[in-house]
Amino acid sequence: MRMRKLFAGLAAAATMLGGLALGVSTANADDTLAVTADELGQTQSIVLQGDAAQLKDHTFKAVLLGAYDGGEWTDASKETLASVSVRTETNVLAKVENALKTIEGVKDADDKFISPDIIEGEGTDAVTISGTAYNDYKASVYKDNPVAFIARYFLGYEATDSGNTDNRDTTSSLKSEHYAGLLRDLVEVLGDGDDTVGSVFEGVADATTEYAERGKATVTISGLTPGIYIIMDSSTGDVIEPSQDEPSKYTASIHMLVGTKLAGKDLEHQELGAVAVKNELIEVNKEILKAKGEYNEEPVNESDQNVGDVIDYKLSTKVPNTTGYETKCGTVDAEAECDGTNYLSYVLTLNDTLSKGLTLNDKVTDTDQSHTGIVVRVAKTDDPDPSDDDDWLTLAEDTDYLITISDVADTTGDYVGGTLLRVDLSKWINNTIVGKEKGNAYIGKEIRVDYSATLNSDAVIGVEGNPNKVDLTYSNKPDGDSTGTIPGPEPEVFTFDFGFQKVAASDNSNLSGAKFSIKALDGKYAGKYLTKNDKGEWVPTPATDSKAEGETPYEFSEIADSDGRFYFSGLAAGQYEVEETTAPTGYLQSVKPKTVVTITWTGQNTKPEPDGAYTVAFSKDGTWDLITPYLSGDSLSTDIVEGNTADRPLVNIKNAKNLTELPLTGGAGIALFVVVGLLLTGAAVMVYAKMRGTMKALRV
Length: 700
Description:
Helix content is 12%, strand content 32%. By secondary structure, the chain is mainly beta. The chain has four domains: 8-276, no CATH class; 281-490, Immunoglobulin-like; 496-663, Sandwich (Immunoglobulin-like), CATH 2.60.40; 664-700. Strands 9, 13, 14, 16, 18, 19, 20 and 23 form an eight-stranded antiparallel sheet that branches. The radius of gyration is 39 Å and the shape is elongated. The N and C termini lie far apart (162 Å). It comes from Bifidobacterium oedipodis.
């Protein structure tokens, strides 16, 4: 039988599918242009390209599937190749043939499988063609050379002598279709398992080797026999430690098919020996959307709150490209839907951890049977409007995802006593994405989880804050069951306090028995007097028959200790009017101090992490100079940069037993002068009236 060779132009374009271009040698080829044995014997390299983060610490191996055994130069200059021929390696022939048995046959423009009458060769009329690539292969002239068949027909490249000089791939899927064409399926089957035996070469990524532009890198696998290789990422995929500002990781790459150069040269119309790495960028994010009753103009990762305030959170990630992952739900042919217990193919779980000071609001009402306070949606567009239901697919609990809520197991650290929320999206991913990647509109779209939490009475007061973290568990290796976990941002909620000491004006001795009210001058409760409910949360004072909510002062005495130290804790930044409503027994009830306390969050917007530093400033009493620094040398303004204000009071607030203990200078002195003057005037009036009455009596 006449021997036939496949002459292939191999392209390793920047996409995995730009793999091969084929040409059939002509009978009148110029022998002087044939590639020599010495040229065939020169070892070659394959260069993997990508972002530095894609390649850092990843290890790749190249397995030879078919070696070049001939070729032809374009002209005598030997600058480019017109064609090369390839033969399948004996030790992988069975593997490649078995892979073809699992793949759909090649179809023409009318969506029909290739039939014997359009396959070259003799004696194919009697072959019955079924819907598999293997049957097409056995009916072709390449029946003993499966790698040649893949190049010639499976990749869809037309012969160069048929006019397709730009080597266009006419049937396999493009990057925009998520690599999910026939070639993609074939390469994943070829790389699956341990029976891919061949000449194995390895290369470890060096992110310091940059190309084209900053942040890019290459991996070079050298010493290769010229030919066609399958490139596999043998790393776990869980190798990038992201910073909080850039929470992202790359999975292990899906397998790639690429041909080397021959004698260091490319085909006339295509570069050889280079391929772009195909690993998936995994991202997870967490933001505070709404705080103090208002939506933020932009999502933030820090907020200041009153104890009792509700904070709206958003978790997000992207629908992954699951190409290369087998569906394992139900039967081998993956027809059965995932039932919630058997969906090991692709794992995607959001793990959200709330510290003890945050109460998860997982239900809208206490009687709800499901977790109605947690809403899970998938975007239908690249730029969805959060408020437009038409832009989102709302998933159903149990049907599409599973929720578990448990106590944090940590015994040390910031999350002791906290709550762990898991949102397992694997069910929806495996039913909707795995095995259905080609043309799938959801791949790359946002997955969004919304819920709220209440800052409770266990909140950490002061600089340290109340953190809330998220991480994402995901499948990270296409041909295995391994998973990775990527940490996301850790937003923090801060709440503040201030304290003061009651003292006697005469000698600064501690006083007890005073009562104070507090009114918010700005923020969500602006203009309202505040009190605490039975949960320890700040709320406006209740309405009465004659006054509206927040109009009646509440007299605080229970927040003071036996030495007269008052602490108002769990407050957001802002201004508060603090007024003494009852003086200690034995002290002037007509002279009670009042001050405006300003809490300024100075650590806001501090990078790289949230910072709870703040300043507390007391105004002077408007009438009496009864507010002084707690420590000698201090001022009425104090910066809090570590710990919290409960370490000590910040100012003394004084009470006087009589007028002589009050200051006699400044505004207070004038006030005292006015009081004394009024008393003297009153006395004079009384004396004058008395005298007039006496003289009138004498005249009678």
